[in-house]
Design goal:
Elements lengths: L1 E17 L2 E15 L2 E7 L9 H11 L10 H12 L3 H19 L3 H4 L6 E3 L2 E3 L4 H13 L5 E4 L5 H11 L4 E4 L6 H10 L7 E3 L10 H6 L5 E3 L6 H7 L5 E4 L1 H4 L2 H13 L3 E4 L6 H9 L6 E2 L12 E2 L2 E3 L2 E3 L9 E2 L4
Parallel strand pairs: 5-6, 6-7, 7-8, 8-9, 9-10, 10-11, 11-12
Antiparallel strand pairs: 1-2, 2-3, 4-15, 13-16, 14-15
Amino acid sequence: MKLTWRRQRIRTRHRFATSQGGVDEKETIVVQVEHDGRAGWGEVVPSALYGQTLESSEAALGAMQGRLGDDPFALEAIVQRWLATHDHQRAALAGVEAALYDWCGKRLGAPLWRLLGLDRPRVRTTFTIGVSDPASVRAKVEEALAAGFDALKVKVGVEHDEQTLTVIREVFDGPLFLDANGAWRPVEAVDRVQALARFRPTLIEQPVAQDDWQCTAELRKLGVAPIFADESCQRPADVLRLRGFVDGVNIKLTKCGGVRQALRMIALARELGLKVMLGCFVSSGLAIAPALAIASLADHADLDGALLLADDPFEGIERAGAVLSLGDRPGLGVRPRAGT
């Protein structure tokens, strides 16, 4: 198998910011696996939160080049070899694994969701409102509601959280998913969560830093909203240690290493009585497609990463209001948009 890659630049429709910083544009990596005259595609979306950069991802891809073997269907062996040598570069693994799944689906003439024995993806996604000034927040919310979204994920963890949520509640009475991205210190987290109770959050995600996950047990006892872990839950083993401390976990393919690792985490979460959210980073539809393929297994979908873009360079994901779906196109179900 031949592995190649290139960088792709994507721009957001509006500046997208969290408590940890913001972006107007970013680069991801499009990977291609070629074998037997057929090509599969995937996207690498590195995150500094997990020690990943474009350069470290490309170095990892270079190490994998020439070592994939000659059988694209040998996915488990390929994934385990990678984890044994490049565990810290799981974003790169997720991109390559997606390309292999895309190749296998095209070879067999079946979409990934069917290969995995799952229902056709048709799930409601939240739409994310990033950190911004009140006027911009109101404009973004009104734009999202006009587009048919009926559940919002709001980035919190800054000084004007209550002002932001007051503005939102003036025009929106539906589900609010609050995401602090680990912004609160354990000593202040209880007061912060209690202060946000009047806005009736559906859930609160990653209230404290990823290493402070044990204090989330106290936040659960407040009864304000279910507490979900994101940055604190990167691998299957993390699901096990979080039992009793959180109500649910946010699983992202680029964080855990792809579809196969995500399926393991979902199975563990179910056995432990934890709820599951499937999440994403800002990316093109190429990175969203494999997560969407398994989204029927989740309780919540936060798969709006490509919807935040000014222009998505990939097409194939269908949207009707808040509902995202995939059709019967083989593999991941997406392809480069004409002219990109």
